[in-house]
Amino acid sequence: MTSTLHPPRAERDRALRPRAELRGAPVVPGWRNPTVWLFVAFVATLAGSLSYLWGTVPAGAAIALGVLARYLGFTVMHEAAHRAAHRDRRTNELLGWLPAVALTVTLPMFRSVHTKHHSSTNRPEVDPDMDVGRSPGWLRPVWLLSPLWTYRSRYYGQGWARTDADRRAQVVLDIATVSGILAAVATGHGLDLLVVVVVPLVLSLALLTLAFDYVPHWPYDSTERFHDTRALPSRALNVVLLGQNYHLVHHLWNTVPWYRYQQVYRETYDGLAAAGARVDWGD
Q1: Structural domain containing residue 214
Q2: Both 131 and 253 in a single domain?
Q3: Of 199, 228, 235, 256, which residue is least crowded by CB atoms under 10 Å?
């Protein structure tokens, strides 16, 4: 009885589901895994940013590299959170941890909070990403940074940690972060801190939340599976946004890796359009 309550929707979901080979981490050697190469790019750009501390690059270049590193690293962390970065579970976790720390969170914390976003998309009382779209609009630059405090307030305050060990790991990271800031200021390294950590973190977070949280879900007017986010088809944006202009695909099938979003979008376009999904600019 329960399996036939919504047969049209069930049939639609089955018909639209991407081919098995397009879902999950690729069954290929590591050197052929795009997410592994994205991790390499993250490490290289982060190292380039940190080289400012040794006088190798000027402040402007260090900030730009730091922003780029965190921007690239977010996708690695995001893939790892969905266990789509690498087939080997341990390698998957290792890939996600360093990019997460660069954004001041642990991988388990991000996974828990991001899972809530997927399960409660556009529900203001639960969705942790909705604060980036709150009013008034003139405070948008502040709201774009809101994950720095809203993620923590919900993770700690609402008990979103999956295990005590996960919660303790985030506590340790938060203590280490605050201690590091105080130590840098106390020892006269405040400028270094701004150049290699604070400014890149603020700029990259604002860019990430604008591109991956605000634009794909605005105007937050639906909580329905096929209507709570959108796709903005573009070859250029597919490169610049690492596939997240096809955010609709990610929400529908979150085990599809970032580098396959465009292909899945093209293969399922007709069905998505028939379902009333926001599949194009202006939808």
Answers
A1: 33-220
A2: no
A3: 235
